[in-house]
Amino acid sequence: MTSESKQKVLSVSQLTAQVKGQLEGNFSSVVVEGEISSWSLAPSGHAYFSIKDEGALLQCVAWRSALQRLAFRPDEGMKVILRGKLSVFEKRGAYQLNAESIRKSGEGELWLKFQQLKARLEKEGLFATDRKRKLPVYPRSIGVVTSPTGAVIRDIINILTRRAPFLPVVIFPARVQGTGAASEIAAAVGHFSRTTHVDIIIVARGGGSAEDLWEFNDEALARAIFSSAIPVISAVGHETDFSISDFVADLRAPTPSAAAEIVSAGYVSLAEGIRQNLHRQRRAVDSRLREMRSIVNGLVTSHALRQPELLLREYQQRTDVAMSRMPELVTNQLERTRLRVQRATGALEGHNPQLILKKGYAIIRRAKDDKALMSVEQLKKNLPVDIELKNGKRRAVITDDGAEDFFA
Known about the structure:
Shape: elongated
Low-confidence stretches: none
CATH topology of the largest domain: Rossmann fold
Distance between the termini: 176 Å
């Protein structure tokens, strides 16, 4: 019996299953670098592709959940680093890498440097919000630090020309990519800060990869922005891109175009307010003109202007009617006045003290000052008094100062 006859015969599925178990058990977590090839995105949202180097090619799959976590879109020829586990696709008998994360090659080291510098500068207070300055609402001039060629400067100039054509723009040309670019940008910021010919500085660059934008993560540039005597807007990359210059600047704009809109917003708002005010005044004038036109039209078509003699006759007639009623009005007025006088006379008579005396009452006055005495306590002994009755007065002297003797 040969050795082959003694060996257990396996089916293809059994052998593949054993390989799958060994492979997945020994390579449950791997990190591999290579260049994307044959990238294909299925309708399900999963991606099927390969990564390769000079000597080999590895089949890969990235599930939709992993792709949704990416901040970039993988593409053909892109060099990437994958982390995942090896698996066997049994129907084809081929092994593949199930990619759980994908990042651009080289971004790992850059990201670490970025985080370290960000943490150190933040600890020093370069990112503190209480030191950030408000931008002037109506700047007199704008300084722009960017490449003198390309879409960025054209976009900024076009927007400012459209929104605030009277606003001067001073351009300080500088490289915005590659070794040494950060030094040029820092020198430009320092120049504007020393000369103070502008009210706002815009540091601008269009979008790009992490490597393209890396110069804006330079420490010297960050300190130049921090030390600037003039407020600085950082407008670097797209809305999802963040750099150290964004954190240290007085304001971060999501794009260079947005920065141009921000610095001109005050003038746009002012112009809009003026337009609205002029519109309101125009409407008020138009309304007043319509009102006056209506009055004039009414006068032109009025009966009085067309036949003024009829209006005069109408007024003459009213005057005649009024004159005919005058005697009656005077008589009525005199009668009303007579009645009011009669009522007033009756009221005065009701308060006449002579009427009270006629009823048998008397008024006792002190002789020396003719003051009426109101109580018995005022009748002192030997006090001269005048007693007024209905038909005259008599002088008397009080002979008793006590009520007891009077009634005894």
